[in-house]
# Entry
Amino acid sequence: MILDLHNHSIKSDDGRAKVENYCQWIRKRGLPIDGFVLTEHRQFDAESDYRGLEDRTGLLILKGSEVETDYGHVLVFGVNSDMLAAFDFGRVDLSLERVLREVSRCGGVAVPCHPGRPRVGMCAHVEQRGAVEGVEIVETLNGGSRGRENQVAASLAERMGYRGVGGSDAHIVSHIGRCATRFEREIASIEDLVGALRAGGYEAVQWE
Amino acid sequence: MGITAEELKSRYGGMVFDSVQVEATLESMLEFARACGETDPRYTDAGHPDLQAPVNFAAKYHGARMLPDDFPEFDRRMMIDAGKAVEWIAPIRPGDELTANSHLHDIYEKTGRSGSMLFLVHRMEFSNARGELTSRVDWRLIIRGGLA
Amino acid sequence: MTSRSYQEVEFGEDLPEVEVDVSLSNVTRFCHATGMLAGRFMNHEEAREEGLPQAIVPGIMSQGLLVSLVHRWAPGCGIRKIDTVFRAPVLVDSAPRCCGVVTDKDDDSRTVELDLTIVNEQGETRVLGTATVVL
# Structure
């Protein structure tokens, strides 16, 4: 089971892709992914219902979020009402330590993304202020990375013993499916995804 | 920040704070197009019956002022260019005298590590001498640290 | 009159890639045409003094390069909107490629949506955007 864990639609202020077009693109290009997660910036899109689109395309479409912390951006999976009440997704000065704690307490998983990127990634902050307790998974392959950003992320993961996932960080249609995560187990829901991320048995994958 | 984005929006949102006249010269539009590798003769052939300025030609213009005169002070070095959208509405022809009116189309803020991040959408609307709207240019700006 | 009809364009179709001229002389030509005469566009040394690796291509020129890509693909088409985000500088005297692909079709308005990117020699996306085009 291969899922692209990091994508933005027009619901994000810098996203330019409609979800239908992501699906159409994946099928048209025959991309080897079984589904994707929409991780809109600083929000959780509770309203959109993609079940009809899933039925038509045979793709799994899940929803998460990308929040902003003092250690850079963080993907959040398993968002629920408790979590939305626990901290303000709209802020850009959240504490990573608190996000990790609250997401875990509410039954989700938090994953620092593009950690090798200056300012908005975790690595530079770790060098300056030390590691944060509670990180278990980081995004080691990000489709929007430049230069050595993905290598820096992978080095951090290896050094700290973090597990790695992959996501495209697509903001336009044709950027979906550049990076993804291959899971050993089948995933059919956000609960399955959270369980799989916690359990291990996955790897970040990338295609040219 | 002493003033909120909501207050800024109610004070400045939609208010035209700058209006300039510019002339779209034949030479500048041809050079713009050719430097960009344009091959469509509507943009490169001075003798073409439908000769017009490149689609994003209006984006080259700046107003006399970038923000309203009484807009709160901030450190201009903290401003990030977050992108530009150009809407083509009607052709700009050589020699057209254009009026460019600027207003702030949207203003919102996010609280950040170093204070606030203020998001501005600066819109310039271009009209020709016949009063026809030709182009709309949206410039998205982020002010890191917000206003002083 | 466009050389491509709406019907013949397919979702997912690639626009032919174009290697664009961002030599110092051509960028300088653009700067003179637009009055964008900042040193960071036309002089490598002045750009370095501003902390840049070398001179950079003005964002408006990058957008113009993408406009030209669309016209090469469909001469005579009408670009109704182009929206670009400058993710990272395009360096003067580098060899970037402009790329595009059809990502949506609207039968009512007979418009197509395009993804547009400028990619450097390392394959990194420096500029990305979208365009709405009438065929």
